[in-house]
Amino acid sequence: MNDSFLQKQGVSGALIESVQKFRESYPVAGGLENRMSTPEIPFFGKEILEMAIAALLQGENLLLTGEKATGKNVLAETLAYVFGRPTYNVSFHVNTGSAELIGTDTFQNQEVTLRKGSIYRCAEEGGFGILDEINMAKNDAVSVLHAALDYRRIIDVPGYDKIPLHPAARMIGTMNYGYAGTRELNEALVSRFLVIDMPPLTEETLFYLIQSKFPDLKPAAREALAGLYLDLQKKAKQAEITTRALDLRGLFGAIGTMRQGLSPYLAVQIGIVNKCFDLFEKEIVRDVVRTRIPEEWTPQDIF
């Protein structure tokens, strides 16, 4: 099951075989079942998958960069599923420190012990650490990962032993451009990753995603909703609007409310249009919506 969608996308047979050997070489320890995940919609994109799989097989860490809604987290989750590894998610923010990553002292059974952080457990158990929005953190916070991310593959915990990374452990960082609170990653950190720049969604990819999540959607509705997203993507690229309305989660949420019986026009209002708080921008987005989603449409026109 792990490989079927890779074969459908034409991923190299040699890479698929290597992934199978990887899974056989590094079985997952018991008790980690809750850490294993199956993506609701696997990532779609042969070239990106081949680059990512080859890098991870080589023992490298990945940094996924790109604009909003390009599938960075979906790719990270898909890779963990393909390799059969438990996942450890760290969502970075401006106050993230080493304690959240590695662990912190706690008092237990009348003695001071280390309460292990996500990255510590990931290193021990051979997981895939997903470092979400890594450029939100201060550079001094992620610097504690330098020894884990390079050839040394160790985590040195002050006051405790240094721990070697499990041979199957990998780190996958994600970062968006231009979000409030983001910063440039320092050169020393970037050099420890292989970088994949995620391309914007294409019509083919968008059709695949919508069809996968809503297989009972009528063809005309699928074309209209995909066209709406692509129109907004074009306007955002031309700087006519911000990326607030360019929200794939919002689009899927809107389609879900249509299934519940909400008018398609109103559903798109709450899923996309109302994500814009600037009145001028909201009007531009609403005009785009009117060209694709007629106000008289009912849920029966969608499903």
Describe the fold and architecture.
This protein has 303 residues and is of the alpha/beta class. The protein is built from 15 helices and nine strands. It starts with a helix and ends with a helix. Strand 6 and strand 7 form a beta hairpin. The strands form three sheets. A five-stranded parallel sheet has the order 2-5-8-1-9, with helices on both faces. 44% of the residues lie in helices and 15% in strands. Helix 10 crosses helix 11. The chain is globular and about 65 Å long.
Please outline what is shown here.
With 303 residues, the protein is an alpha/beta fold. The protein has helices spanning 4-8, 13-25, 46-57, 72-83, 98-101, 118-125, 139-142, 146-149, 187-190, 203-213, 219-237, 248-259, 264-271, 279-292, 299-302, and strands at residues 62-66, 87-91, 103-108, 111-116, 128-132, 154-156, 162-164, 170-176, 194-197.
List the helices and strands and how they pair.
Layout: H1 4-8, H2 13-25, H3 46-57, E1 62-66, H4 72-83, E2 87-91, H5 98-101, E3 103-108, E4 111-116, H6 118-125, E5 128-132, H7 139-142, H8 146-149, E6 154-156, E7 162-164, E8 170-176, H9 187-190, E9 194-197, H10 203-213, H11 219-237, H12 248-259, H13 264-271, H14 279-292, H15 299-302
Parallel strand pairs: 1-8, 1-9, 2-5, 5-8
Antiparallel strand pairs: 3-4, 6-7
